[in-house]
Specification:
112 residues; mainly alpha
Length: 112
């Protein structure tokens, strides 16, 4: 069956699947499984990130949060909110094993 290209321009969707035409010369019709998405998947790496356990992810998150707090403390020192001695003491509190010291250091940084 011939379809007039002026009536059905390239890329136009046809509602009746029996009358779907290929508007790109030199290519055959593809099903949804063989479409552009499957070609993109074939070019992408299978697993870009290595598989990590939950404990590894939690550990990484805790380290990033600690680094973020140290950076906030450094910024507060640059702004003149803390002296270098106070920053040193707060850092020691953050690295302490005493939970009360860590909580107090977090509160000081958040309120700075």
């Amino acid at each position: 069956m011939y379809m007039d290209p002026n009536k059905y321009p390239a890329g136009m969707l046809v509602n009746n699947p029996d009358k779907v035409i290929n508007t790109i010369p030199g290519q055959t019709m593809t099903t949804t499984g063989d479409g552009i998405f499957s070609r993109l998947q074939a070019q992408m790496p299978h697993d870009p990130l290595p598989t990590r356990t939950l404990s590894e992810i939690v550990g990484r998150l805790e380290r990033l949060e600690l680094e973020n707090k140290f950076l906030r403390l450094k910024i507060a020192c640059m702004e003149g909110k803390f002296s270098q001695e106070e920053v040193t003491n707060i850092r020691k509190m953050m690295m302490s094993q005493d939970e009360a010291s860590v909580t107090l250091a977090n509160t000081i940084i958040e309120n700075a």
